[in-house]
Amino acid sequence: MANKHHVYWYRHHIVNIIMIVDSKTSDWILIDTGLFYSEAFILKKIRRVLGELIPPKAIILTHGHFDHVGALRPLLQRFPNVPVYAHELELPFLTGQRHYVKPDPSVPGGLMAKLAWLYPYHAYDFSRIICPLPDDGTLPFFTDWRWIHTPGHTEGHVSLFRPSDRFLIAGDAFTTVKQESLLSVLAQKKEIHGPPAYFTPDWELAKTSVETLQKLEPAFAVTGHGQMMEGSSLHSGLKRLISQFEQVAVPDHGRYVPE
């Protein structure tokens, strides 16, 4: 069971699904919902962690890409009264008002990038149930956690941070696997990379967001893709990513790469 300090994370094919649990009460929140067929996987993990199928107090979306909101609708059919939260700037993409940028299969890096033309990018409509995250920066029901606006990969992307133990849930602000490469995804080779290049339209903001997270000096990091990293490997990896961002994160060419 992949967990540390009452944060549980599980990889479902290409993406991580995360649970934050209150060990005293068994209250918990779900961070992102994986792919469109991830519901059964998530329910299995809920039972494994909690011993029974307890609804989450809330679902928090780091952003609204297809591999992070895929199972949201079936989960809400099962848990109809659970509130869903995202950053205010992400709401247009989650209420049917705006589509995301088209994924860019021309970026280099491997087969996952080449297949990007297949990835859904159209807006979802969860307007009846989705809410903006609180203005005070806290997470609903888990006020020892804070949300941090980390745009670049999407306009309203957020990461989550618990200051008490410096635990970071980065979403796709950075990753710990080269997500553009199918071989790297299958092998889960642990190394810090930028956000998935085929779905990132603003590289200047993306770098600023990584710098914001690095300044928090996280002790542990779980990302949307890849394995958990901690300690010196996390610190050195983030430092390297920032110092070489234009070389190791920004594609040499692509639809959203500055001339």
Name some characteristics of this structure.
six-stranded mixed sheet, seven-stranded mixed sheet, Metallo-beta-lactamase, Chain A, single chain, 259 residues, Metallo-B-lactamas, BH2193 protein
Produce a short descriptive summary:
The chain is α/β, with parallel strands linked by helices. Helices cover about 25% and strands about 20% of the residues.
The helix-and-strand class reads: alpha/beta
Average pLDDT for all residues: 95
Under CATH at level 1, the class stands as Alpha Beta
CATH architecture: 4-Layer Sandwich
Describe the protein's topology.
Elements: E1 3-4, E2 7-12, E3 15-21, E4 28-31, H1 39-50, E5 58-60, H2 66-69, H3 72-78, E6 84-86, H4 91-94, H5 111-114, E7 130-132, E8 138-139, E9 142-149, E10 158-162, E11 167-171, H6 182-187, H7 203-215, E12 220-223, E13 229-230, H8 231-243, H9 245-248
Parallel strand pairs: 4-5, 5-6, 6-7, 11-12
Antiparallel strand pairs: 1-2, 2-3, 3-4, 8-9, 9-10, 10-11, 12-13
Helix pairs in contact: 7-8
